[in-house]
From TrEMBL:
Protein name: BTB domain-containing protein
CDD domains found in the cross-reference section: BTB_POZ_ZBTB_KLHL-like
Stored PROSITE patterns: BTB
Top-level taxonomic group: Eukaryota
SMART domains found in the cross-reference section: BTB
Source organism phylogeny: Eukaryota, Fungi, Dikarya, Basidiomycota, Agaricomycotina
Pfam family, one: BTB
Residue stretches making up the BTB domain: 37-108
Disordered as annotated region, ranges: 1-22
Amino acid sequence: MSADPALPHKRARTEAEDEPAMKMELKHDEKVWLDDGNIVIVAQNVAFRVHRSVLSLHSEVFRDMFTIPPPDDEETIDGCPAVRVSDTADGMRHMLWALYNGRTFPEHGQVEFDVVAALVRMAHKYQISYLCDETLSTIKELYVEGFLDFIACKPRSVHPRLTYKVEDAFQVVQLAHLTNTPSLLPAALYLCCTSEPFCNLSKNLQCFLADRGSSQFPYLKYLTEEDIFRCLSVLPRLVQVKLWMFGTIFSGISPDCVENAMCKAVWSSVTHDKFFDGTMHSPDGPIDTNCLETIADDVMRSTLLSLDGFTFCYQCSNRCGEREDEARDTVWHEMPTYFGLAIPNWPESES
Ligand SMILES: [Zn+2]
């Protein structure tokens, strides 16, 4: 693959001079320009020189495209027939590179979510099913199989396979619809509900009415109106579940408690101070919908500070941790039903 971005190109179709894309100066892609290629794909103003046979082998869409007889005034670039597509240059580069490289992603290390998302779209559009499956499975590693563990980590920034930011969830929802992968929806819709604009409704309600928040929350464009309605209607349920989580985790001291009097005092402080003062918010503030968040350790740590070093005994603190694991498992199991979704093979609750 050579790089020669400055080479001039031939154009047979002079009548298309008025099209904005044709006015931009074409450049050879630095990564995917094969000197012995026999076709040039043009995305935006970037030209990719590749092989018909290779594209046909991988993609039914390209195969069909190449069976159509070329027009008399067929555009050629460097002597090769040129095909202009409406995709982004980045998306096309990612896809072609994956096709020629034999491997979509490196075996180890993190890949950029935006790259994976672009590949899902391209693989879906060009009907390259193995590429679509492989890229979706990378997204599933975080948003399905690994989600409950990942979301328990604090800080929640590093997943071994995929970069993460909470706004990516909006795009995951769209990819789930596009590829008919409903198992991605519970985690993605849940994350949408825990982030702006949903978690700060009273402040942001206007953004749902005015141009779907395109200026303030550009990622809202990835949701359909049905998705938005789903998220809005599930918010009270998530708040309710969050309160249930708190009540379940701190539902009393352990039967095996070894510091009865102290633990009872700590428990009373937790339920009164932390629950009624700490988890309730003023109506104007953000609502706490992140019911899959781990809270036991943080609450116990803050008790340690506020009670001059007193906290639960080892047994009670363990019991709170166990209750939290069970409660999170239950909530994760029920998450699809909150959104009115029936997901085949969704994990059963272990508790
Ligand atoms: Zn105890």
